[in-house]
Write a structure and sequence with these properties.
Layout: E1 4-8, E2 14-15, E3 31-35, E4 61-63, H1 65-71, E5 75-80, H2 90-103, E6 108-112, H3 116-128, E7 131-137, H4 142-150, E8 154-158, H5 162-176, H6 187-204, E9 211-215, H7 220-234, E10 243-249, H8 254-260, H9 284-294, E11 298-301, H10 303-317, H11 323-337, E12 346-351
Parallel strand pairs: 5-12, 6-7, 7-8, 9-10, 9-12, 10-11
Antiparallel strand pairs: 1-2, 1-3, 4-5
Helix pairs in contact: 2-3, 2-6, 3-4, 6-7, 8-9, 10-11
C-alpha cells in the first residue's frame, strides 16, 4: 500500500498514484501528492534509499549587501540554485519526478521545456538509464539546447512560441504512449522543489526572512516553496509561512493580473526571461492561492529592468544569474515602490539558474 495518493488541487478528488495521471479525471485540474502523515520532507519514492541523484540540493546561501543597499532593503539572502548539477533549481524536481518514473519501470519518456528543465531531464534520464525525448523552442538559448543534446536525449527543437513545444510534446506522447514527464504538470516535480524552502529554513534559522521574492512562470518553485514552508509550520518547526512574492515579465503576467483581479491578454511580445515566458501556466489558480494565503504580492517588470539587474548582480556581487533570476531583483524595486518592502526588510531570493546557460547581456 502506498503512503500517498494524488489529490485534485481544485475539487480534491483522490486518484491512485501512477506516472500517467497528470490531471483530475473529474474536473481536469492539476494534481498534487497527498501523504498519509504530516512528516517534513516526505518523498513519493517508496524506497528512498534508491533515490535518483546527481548531488542536487544543499545549495549555499549568501548575503548580497551591495545589492541590498542599491535596492533600498535591509538585507538580501540569495540561495544559489545554479549550484545544482545542471545549473538550475530544476534538478530538485527532476530528481524526484524521474526517480518515481524509474521506480515504476519507465524506460522512455517525453518532456517539454524552455531550456533548463529539458537539460535537467536529459541529465537525470542519462543517470537513470531512461531514453528522453525533450521538446524545446528552437529559439531557446543555444547553450541550453546543446546541454540537452550532450546528455544523450533526443532534442525536438520546435519553431514558434514556448506553447508550441508543449503542443508538440503532447502530440508525440499521445502517438507513442510514453509517460509525459511534464515539470509543469507532474505532482512529483513539486515534491522536489519544496526542498528549496525546507533547506533555506534550516540554513537561515531565526534569520529566515519574512519575505521571499522569486520569478514565477509555471510556478513549480513557487508552489513547492509554499508546500515546504507549510510542512515546517505543521510540524511546528517554523512559526509562519513567509510572504511569497511573485515576479513576472510584462510579456507574461497572467498570475499577477489574476491576483489583482485584472483582465490580461498576451500581446505576443517575447521576454528575455525565458524561464518565466509562459502565458498560460496550468497551475495558475494554485499560484494565485499561494499569493493570497501567504500574504504575498505580485508584480510585473520590463525586460530593460531585468537586464539592468542582471548586470548589477554580476558587477556588484559577482553573481552571474540568468535573466529569469534577475527578474526577481527588478521585482524588488517595484515592491519597494509599492511600500511592500522597506529599508528594514530582509528578503530571500532564489538565483534560479546560471547566466552561463543563457545569451549574454547586450554589448558584452
Amino acid at each position: 500500500m502506498s503512503h500517498y495518493h494524488l489529490a485534485c488541487t481544485e475539487c480534491h478528488e483522490s486518484h491512485d498514484a501512477d506516472v500517467y495521471t497528470l490531471a483530475c479525471r473529474k474536473c481536469s485540474a492539476p494534481l498534487e501528492v497527498a501523504y498519509s502523515d504530516k512528516d517534513v520532507g516526505l518523498s513519493p519514492l517508496h524506497d528512498p534509499d534508491k533515490a535518483l541523484t546527481l548531488g542536487e540540493g544543499n545549495t549555499p546561501v549568501i548575503e548580497l549587501p551591495r545589492i541590498a543597499r542599491s535596492l533600498g532593503v535591509g538585507a538580501i539572502f540569495a540561495k544559489l540554485e545554479y549550484a545544482n548539477p545542471t545549473g538550475s533549481f530544476k534538478d530538485r524536481g527532476t530528481a524526484v519526478m524521474i526517480g518515481v518514473m524509474r521506480e515504476h519501470g519507465v524506460t522512455e519518456l517525453v518532456e517539454d521545456s524552455s531550456g533548463n528543465a529539458g537539460a535537467s531531464a536529459s541529465a537525470y534520464c542519462a543517470r537513470a538509464g531512461i531514453t528522453g525525448h525533450i521538446f524545446a523552442p528552437a529559439t531557446a538559448p543555444a547553450a541550453k539546447l546543446a546541454q540537452i543534446r550532450v546528455y544523450g536525449a533526443t532534442l525536438h527543437a520546435i519553431p514558434g512560441p514556448r506553447e508550441a513545444a508543449t503542443e508538440a510534446a503532447e502530440a508525440f506522447q499521445k502517438e507513442h504512449g510514453f509517460p509525459y514527464a511534464s515539470h509543469n504538470l507532474s505532482p512529483y516535480f513539486i515534491e522536489g522543489t519544496k526542498l528549496f524552502a525546507i533547506e533555506a529554513a534550516m540554513q537561515l534559522g531565526e534569520s529566515l526572512p519574512v519575505h521571499v521574492v522569486m520569478p514565477v512562470g509555471n510556478g513549480s518553485l513557487f508552489i513547492g516553496s509554499y508546500k515546504g514552508f507549510n510542512e515546517l509550520v505543521q510540524a511546528e518547526q517554523l512559526k509562519a509561512v513567509p510572504k511569497l512574492h511573485a515576479v513576472q515579465s510584462m510579456a507574461a503576467m497572467g498570475v499577477v493580473a489574476a491576483h489583482r483581479g485584472e483582465q490580461w491578454t498576451p500581446s505576443g511580445k517575447k521576454t528575455i526571461a525565458g524561464g518565466i515566458s509562459s502565458v498560460a501556466p496550468p497551475r495558475k489558480n494554485e499560484m494565485v492561492r499561494v499569493l493570497k494565503n501567504s500574504g504575498g504580492s505580485g508584480v510585473a517588470v520590463e525586460d530593460e529592468d531585468i537586464v539592468h539587474w542582471q548586470r548589477e548582480l554580476a558587477e556588484q556581487e559577482g553573481v552571474y544569474a540568468e535573466p529569469t533570476s534577475a527578474a526577481a531583483f527588478a521585482g524588488i524595486v517595484a515592491l519597494v515602490q509599492q511600500g511592500v518592502l522597506d529599508s528594514k526588510s530582509a528578503v530571500l531570493v532564489p538565483i534560479t539558474g546560471s547566466g552561463l546557460k543563457d545569451e549574454p547581456p547586450a554589448a558584452l
